[in-house]
Amino acid sequence: MFCPKCGKEIPDGSKFCPYCGYQIAKVDKEEKVQTIELTSKGLKKQLLFAVLIIIIGILFAAAGGSTSAGIGGFLIFVGIVWLIITRIKIWWYHK
Fold first, then answer.
1. Which residue has the higher pLDDT, 41 or 60?
2. Which of 30, 34, 40, 79 has the fewest C-beta atoms lying within 10 Å of its C-beta?
3. Which of 32, 39, 36 is nearest to 15 (CA)?
4. Which residues make Cβ contacts (< 8 Å) with residue 48, sequence separation at least 6?
5. pLDDT of residue 38
6. Contact predicate 62/52, CB 8 Å
7. Cβ–Cβ contacts within 10 Å for residue 93, how many?
8. Burial status of residue 53 (CB atoms within 10 A of its CB: 0-12, 13-18, 19 or more)
């Protein structure tokens, strides 16, 4: 079997040319679905973690005291930034 792009001989059944990277065969739909499912699970865990950080931050802020309020505000900020970044990742991977 030969690569249609660079013309070099490649192993039979190759999905990509090892020399130029040309995609020989289309990626199976099952492989694509599995990749999306794994990505979704990881992003859902990140969303959950971001929400937990925000909740912990709110609890710290509500506890009172300047140190607790400072820590709580910081945790809320980190949680919101993490939440925004995760939402952007979800949009990016599932567009």
1. 60
2. 30
3. 32
4. none
5. 63
6. no
7. 13
8. buried
